[in-house]
Amino acid sequence: MSTLAVPRAAQQHEQRGFFDRFLSLIARDPNAAPAGATARYTVDNCLDFAIKTIPDLRSRIAGKRVLDFGCGHGWQSIALAKLGAAEVLGLDIVTSRFPEACERAQNHGVAGRVRYSDSAEGFNADVVISISAFEHFSDPAAMLRLMESLLRPGGEILLAWAEPWLSPNGSHVNAFTRLPGTGMPFPWLNLVCPEHAVMRFRSRYRRDGARRYEDVEGGLNKMTLARFERIVNGSGLRVGELRYFGVWGLPLVTKIPGLRELLTSAVSCTLQPA
């Protein structure tokens, strides 16, 4: 055995212990940790983020055939119908949520205009909308190409997502933490702590066995602003509007190179076929 093996192993063990102790200090009680945003959704509030970030959302979908790409639990599909869409298809690969979503659509009086599927074959959309999903796709460039293929001529794609990877809440684990002395989540957790430490910490709250950010339920693709721009610019689609939203409502920070990656909390983009 190398004479360096034992010291190196001891050093790694010490580092592991340090990060585990640090994360324990900022941890919320696992039994009292706040649920994710989806758990707090109602039909009245589930589009708040999209309405805030996508310009003129109501007029863009009014009377249109809308594909809700990555619909999750289906709340937003129902709300899009109530907001004025003529027809909504909620598309997602997790079909176990569909029966409850269909029942919810029935209860809200839009079952005739909303349906759910894991395939969009034969559905030519006027609008493809993706809300809080782009940062989760394992191959976002491929998903954007798929969105385009499902558009009818003259249609458009609407994207709204958060949090970018280098933003304060980019790890999507911050809800389980607290900044000492405040009720705020601990910021930039993924930049402060190594992945293996964060995944061990996360296992207190989620039992999906994830050992990497990419493996968490729903996935996390570490989407930065620079990567998003490369994907959009390489797609061949025409950018209508691209908007960045600063953290904590800070002005101008989204326009400062370098700093914008750290201080942008959300992105929206409208795209049309060239």
Give a description of the structure.
The protein is of the alpha/beta class and about 270 residues long. Helix content is about 30%, strand content about 20%. A seven-stranded mixed beta sheet has the order 3-2-1-4-5-7-6, sandwiched between helices. The model has no long low-confidence stretch (mean pLDDT about 90).
Chart the SSEs and their pairings:
Elements: H1 5-26, H2 48-53, H3 57-61, E1 65-69, H4 75-83, E2 87-91, H5 98-107, E3 114-117, E4 125-131, H6 140-149, E5 151-161, H7 189-192, H8 195-202, H9 225-233, E6 237-246, H10 259-263, E7 264-273
Parallel strand pairs: 1-2, 1-4, 2-3, 4-5
Antiparallel strand pairs: 5-7, 6-7
In short:
This protein has 274 residues and is of the alpha/beta class. The protein is built from ten helices and seven strands. The protein has helices at residues 5-26, 48-53, 57-61, 75-83, 98-107, 140-149, 189-192, 195-202, 225-233, 259-263; strands spanning 65-69, 87-91, 114-117, 125-131, 151-161, 237-246, 264-273.
Physical arrangement of strands within the biggest beta sheet: 3-2-1-4-5-7-6
User: How many angstroms separate the termini?
Assistant: 62 Å
Uncertain runs with pLDDT below 50, 5 residues or more? none
Assess the beta-strand content as a share of residues.
Answer: 15-25%
Radius of gyration: 21 Å
Q: What characterizes the major β-sheet?
A: 7 strands, mixed
Structural class by helix and strand composition: alpha/beta
Outline type:
globular
Q: What's the helix-strand series? A: HHHEHEHEEHEHHHEHE
Please give the count of helices.
Answer: 10
Mean pLDDT: 92
The total strand number stands at 7
Helix content: 25-40%
